[in-house]
């Protein structure tokens, strides 16, 4: 990276239920893709099938 090249990492929100194998494989694929690119930020919060969206998402109106 050049001295004045300030790249911002990409941030994408995905709400994926992780209580089943399919959702976990989706997350694994996304993680693999992101690691190959090297400029991504990933935040994972385990989700159940019947859970509502996270409070912080409702609060911030995202």
Side by side, the strands of the main sheet go: 1-2
Low-confidence stretches: none
Mean pLDDT: 77
Helix-strand topology string: EHEH
How is this structure best described in words?
With 62 residues, the chain is mainly alpha-helical. Helices cover 37% and strands 6% of the residues. It has two helices and two strands. Strand 1, helix 1 (21-37) and strand 2 form a beta-alpha-beta unit. The chain is flat and about 40 Å long. It starts with 9 loop residues before the first strand and ends with a helix. The relative contact order is 0.22.
Write a compact overview of the structure shown.
The chain has 62 residues and is mainly α.
Write the layout of secondary structure elements.
Blueprint lengths: L9 E2 L9 H17 L2 E2 L13 H6 L2
Parallel strand pairs: 1-2
Properties at a glance:
single chain, 62 residues, 2 helices, 37% helix
């Amino acid at each position: 990276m050049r001295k004045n090249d300030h790249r911002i990492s990409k941030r994408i929100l995905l709400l994926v239920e992780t209580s089943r194998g399919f959702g976990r494989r989706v997350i694994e694929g996304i993680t693999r893709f992101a690691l190959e690119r090297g400029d991504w930020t990933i935040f994972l919060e385990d989700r159940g099938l019947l859970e509502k969206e996270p409070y912080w998402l409702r609060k911030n109106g995202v």
